[in-house]
Amino acid sequence: MAERAILHLDLDTFFVSVERLKNARLCGRPVIVGGALERGVVASCSYEARRFGVYSGMALKLARRLCPEAVFIRGNMADYSYYSRLITSILEEEVPVLEKASIDEFYADLTGLDRYYGCWKWATRLRKRILRESGLPISLGLSTSKSVAKIATGEAKPNNQLYVQSGREKPFLAPLPVQKIPGVGPKTHRTLATMGIRHIHTLQQMPPSVLQTAFGKWGRLLWERANAIDPRPVTPHRQRKSLSAERTFPQDLFDLPSLLTALSALVEKLAYRLRQLGMYTGLIALKIRYADFRTFSQQTKVPYTAFDEEILPVATTLLHKLYTRRMGIRMLGIAFGDLIPQTCQLDFFDDRLRTTRLYQAVDALRNKYGPHILKKAASMPPTPLHQLPQHSKNPLPYVR
Ligand SMILES: [Mg+2]
Q: If you measure from the C-alpha of residue 249 to the centroid of ligand 1, how many angstroms do you get, rounded to a whole number?
């Protein structure tokens, strides 16, 4: 295979940096973005806060004990989505093959570019442009594969860049601790520690079969990553499939309440699939087909989300806009586009946390018993009043 030039870019402490753009007084101070103190986790923290031992994913309560002088801020997905898209649009102008790996992380395949400019010089200029036009610090790594480029970015941070040239990948990785390999979480780290493996050079020297015995398929991958073997291609954004669901009704629907019920069921079904894939959507599209087969659709951008509560109102507004003719509807369809992987847990921010816990519980039941085990009340046909139980004040929006 011809040698590749893979660039990885990652915005530094992205949520904190966006908050600092909004409020310059936060610069130079320890800043922690998360939800409410009682239950939330750290979604992003500044380097000033990291010096106190705070890290992403830590309980906010503990973070406050470690760093009481930090400024705690509730996250705002709408702002982060705006800046994420700004960076995406700059990169799309510049980069021939771009993959958006998460809200603040990108891969680009620059193979072939060096004939004209030189990848490293080009990447340096690109990083400066992003900083100049967005005000957001970003780090990058350039190497011959995705995983080495990503690790290089990690080593370059904050607000810097690192080039690991062809042939230098293994010596670069060798002295690093094993948890620098993407995918090595606390569990793998612990198991490796019990095997006496702490640094990547140990992995490099082992026969892959030992790791395969201990970890199965993942063991083989681990050995490959340690040895800078990673043939994964950069997958352009537009090639990534969107998700869609549609329903043709047995009889044309005329009344809005029935349409809204059908819409709610479609949203519920598709948002569940979205969460199962571990993705966010940033684009919602709705399609209706009238009885005369004329079809209309509309779409709108939204802050990145995977929640029914945030998607359904948008879909409802689109339906109101689309349903303008005095004619029955035979088909309703919904699609999610601009899909990006969720890199953090769903419980980013606390106002989402309660719903997140509910979703996790509901999704777990669906995984176990099938997708139809639970349905939202709004997705069910209305129950005649006399059938409702006396005390039906169920606090959960789900019914069996
Ligand atoms: Mg980042």
A: 45
CA distances from 117 to 46, 113, 120, 122, 368 (A): 35, 7, 9, 6, 54
Q: Respond yes or no: is residue 105 known to be catalytic.
A: yes
CA distance 109 to 160: 20
Residue 29 resides in a domain = yes
In-domain check, residue 32: yes
How many Å lie between the centroid of ligand 1 and the Cα of residue 129? Answer: 18
**Ordered DSSP codes for 223-260:** HHHHTT---PPP--GGGSPPEEEEEEEEEEE-SHHHHH
Choose one of 105, 124, 143: the last residue of a domain. Answer: 124
> Is residue 129 a part of any domain in this protein?
no
Query: Which of 124, 158, 191 finishes a domain?
Result: 124
Residue 262 within any structural domain of the chain: yes
CA of 289 relative to ligand 1 center, distance in Å = 42
Total domains present in the chain? 2
Contact 262, 312 (CB under 8 A): no
Burial of 176 (0-12, 13-18, 19+ CB in 10 A): middle
Catalytic residue among 19, 48, 99, 105: 105
Per-residue pLDDT tens, the chain, 400 aa: give them: 578 999 999 999 999 999 999 999 999 999 999 876 667 889 999 999 999 999 988 999 999 999 999 999 988 889 999 999 999 999 999 998 999 999 999 999 999 887 667 899 999 999 999 999 999 999 999 999 999 999 999 999 999 999 999 999 999 999 999 999 999 988 999 999 999 999 999 999 999 999 999 999 999 999 999 999 999 999 986 656 789 999 999 999 989 999 999 999 999 999 999 999 889 999 999 999 999 999 999 999 999 999 999 999 999 999 999 999 989 999 999 999 999 988 754 445 445 545 566 666 777 777 777 766 666 666 765 544 444 444 433 333 333 2
Structure-block tokens of residue 168: 């230098």
The range of the structural domain enclosing residue 36 comes to 1-124
Q: Annotate 40-56 with DSSP letters as a single string.
A: -BEEEE-HHHHTTT--T
Give distance in angstroms: CA of 86 to centre of ligand 1.
15
- pTM (predicted TM-score): 0.82
